[in-house]
């Protein structure tokens, strides 16, 4: 089975993604050094850019796994370039997830790359393609939390620590939400190959509304509270303290007055 794309340019990293990485690096440096006149703006730009990087890697993981599973069309579609503008719907893939971070501090799953599933044989391959995206969020969360559980934060500026904690929170929320067995989300994609044809046909009409359903349920205070209790428990298990999570969220919203306790933590 051929797993290579036909054009060398299909795998070249997009300048758009390189630009997003550059913004992440520069604003991360500004957050670390305190060079920025407004630290909150630096934290906002750093977390937002890093979040977009994780979204690109999420979709890249889907596409790359699909490529090696038999869908050789993903290269021609631009999915291997890490360019977010190549996704099936840039609004759903990038703009909407960023908007939810700004409004609610939730790493909401974005849109998707289009995989030609008819080219892929074997249920395990289909499941792995779906799982590859959220597993990338798990890996990203591990990187963000590593300084916490490795006890390597001595001398790390508070604003940078807060930003890492908030970014880790986004990755954990994204991983949990993506793994939900809801039609339209990756969690259902993992299970779908193992369901009967009849069940798949019955569920198929609801797939476009899965993300909206999750969004609506999360607005219920009781569900929202339980969800963030789970997220907090995961982060605390990784030694990311609630204070850093809280102040990271507060610093991110630079347009609001930051609690005095977070300034004291700096």
Please give the structural blueprint:
Layout: H1 15-33, H2 39-69, H3 90-104, H4 123-149, H5 158-178, H6 186-191, H7 197-203, H8 210-218, H9 221-237, H10 242-252, H11 260-265
Helix pairs in contact: 1-2, 2-3, 2-4, 2-5, 4-5, 5-9, 5-10
What does this structure look like?
It is built from eleven helices and no strands. The protein has 266 residues and is mostly helical. The relative contact order is 0.13. The model is unreliable at 1-6 (pLDDT under 50).
| Structure summary, number of beta strands | 0
Distance between the termini: 56 Å
| Percent in strands | under 5%
Structural class: mainly alpha
Which range best describes the helical content: under 10%, 10-25%, 25-40%, 40-55%, 55-70% or over 70%? 55-70%
Taken from the alpha-carbon principal axes, the silhouette is globular
Alpha-carbon Rg, integer? 19 Å
- Uncertain residue ranges: 1-6
Compute the average pLDDT.
Answer: 88
Order of helices and strands: HHHHHHHHHHH
Sum this structure up briefly:
The chain is an all-alpha fold and 266 residues long. The chain is built from eleven helices and no strands.
Top keywords for this entry?
metalloprotease, zinc, 0% strand, 266 residues, cell membrane, 11 helices, mainly alpha
């Amino acid at each position: 089975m051929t797993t290579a794309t036909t054009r060398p340019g299909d795998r070249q990293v997009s300048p758009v993604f390189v630009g997003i990485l550059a913004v992440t690096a520069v604003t991360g440096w500004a957050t670390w050094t305190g060079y920025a006149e407004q630290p909150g703006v630096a934290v906002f730009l750093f977390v937002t850019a890093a979040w977009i990087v994780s979204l690109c890697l999420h979709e890249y993981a889907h596409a790359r796994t699909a490529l090696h599973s038999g869908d050789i069309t993903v290269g021609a579609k631009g999915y291997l370039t890490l360019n977010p503008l190549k996704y099936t719907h840039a609004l759903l893939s990038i703009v909407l997830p960023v908007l939810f971070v700004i409004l609610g501090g939730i790493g909401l799953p974005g849109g998707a790359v289009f995989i030609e599933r008819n080219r892929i044989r074997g249920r395990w391959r289909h499941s792995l393609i779906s799982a590859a995206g959220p597993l990338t969020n798990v890996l990203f969360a591990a990187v963000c939390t590593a300084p916490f559980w490795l006890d390597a934060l001595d001398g790390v500026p508070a604003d940078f620590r807060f930003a890492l904690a908030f970014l880790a929170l986004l990755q954990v929320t994204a991983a949990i939400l993506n793994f939900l067995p809801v039609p339209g989300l990756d969690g259902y994609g993992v299970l779908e190959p193992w369901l009967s044809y009849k069940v798949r046909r019955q569920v198929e009409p609801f797939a476009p509304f899965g993300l909206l359903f999750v969004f609506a349920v999360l607005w219920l205070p009781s569900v929202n509270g339980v969800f963030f209790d789970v997220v907090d428990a995961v982060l605390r298990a990784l030694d990311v303290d609630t204070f850093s999570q809280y102040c990271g969220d507060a610093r991110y919203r630079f347009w609001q007055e930051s609690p005095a306790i977070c300034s004291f933590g700096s």
